[in-house]
Backbone:
């Protein structure tokens, strides 16, 4: 079977439409299953997606009261109140504006002494929650998903990773200088991501063209982490500003 046919490709007219289409998928699931387990991502790409969800909540269209969420990743060595942390990003973009209960919000702990134990516990919690219903993903210019950098075995669960220079460079805009960008992160592994029932991958902007081309090629290789998705049975790629 040709792996490429497994991915469903949707071209959006612009960034707003991409964000709306992705939000519609989460909204539909949430309405059908109020106890939905959301798998969430940070970064520039999903900002519009979160805006859509917040607006839908404020309009009374959806509620997160019974839902829970698991974020993909977090930097090691910075705490949730640090403005560059992914936890802070999530508070600003979603959690502070909706009714999800604090105890139902999960972001990997990057500021704990025992990172390995925190990583193993994260996968146990996801499993105990019944698994992620829809996992949102962005993609790095080198094909990373979560913080799974090229060369990561597809078999790994949540784990601690060393960030590549390319990733640290791409993320330095959120810090005062590249020296402040952490060198390690804790991330759901490829296996954790593959366990999600459904995956929505957002790709936006010309800087992602090379990653897009590699994904489209259909080749499955650990050198290009996103290519693992060809082995998942329910992935929708919503893209804009790339061909
Ligand atoms: C974020 C994450 C990363 C980003 C990727 C793209 O939680 O896991 O894989 O999705 O680095 O980032 P942006 O959207 O900023 O281009």
Residues:
């Amino acid at each position: 079977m040709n792996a490429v046919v497994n991915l469903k490709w949707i071209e959006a007219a612009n960034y707003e439409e991409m964000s709306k289409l992705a939000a519609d998928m989460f909204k539909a699931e949430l309405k059908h299953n109020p106890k939905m387990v959301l798998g969430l991502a940070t970064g520039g790409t999903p900002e519009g997606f979160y805006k859509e969800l917040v607006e839908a909540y404020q309009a009374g269209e959806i509620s997160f009261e019974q839902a829970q969420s698991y974020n993909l990743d977090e930097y090691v060595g910075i705490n949730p109140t640090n403005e560059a942390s992914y936890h802070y990003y999530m508070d600003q973009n979603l959690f502070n504006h909706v009714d999800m209960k604090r105890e139902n919000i999960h972001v990997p702990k990057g500021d704990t002494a025992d990172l390995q134990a925190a990583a193993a516990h994260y996968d146990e919690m996801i499993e105990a929650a019944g698994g992620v219903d829809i996992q949102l993903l962005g993609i790095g210019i080198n094909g990373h998903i979560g913080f799974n950098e090229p060369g990561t075995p597809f078999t790994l669960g949540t784990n601690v990773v060393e960030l590549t220079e390319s990733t640290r460079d791409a993320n330095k805009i959120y810090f005062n200088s590249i020296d402040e960008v952490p060198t390690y992160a804790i991330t759901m592994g490829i296996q954790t991501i593959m366990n999600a029932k459904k995956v929505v991958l957002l790709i936006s902007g010309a800087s992602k063209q090379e990653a897009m081309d590699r994904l489209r090629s259909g080749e499955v290789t650990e050198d290009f982490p996103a290519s693992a998705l060809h082995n998942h049975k329910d992935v929708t790629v919503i893209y804009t500003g790339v061909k």
Summary: The first helix runs from residue 15 to 32. DSSP finds seven helices and ten strands in the chain. Strands lie at 7-11, 37-40, 68-71, 73-75, 105-106, 134-137, 159-162, 184-187, 198-204, 235-240. Residues 41-45, 72-73, 138-140, 144-147 surround fructose -6-phosphate (CB under 6 Å).
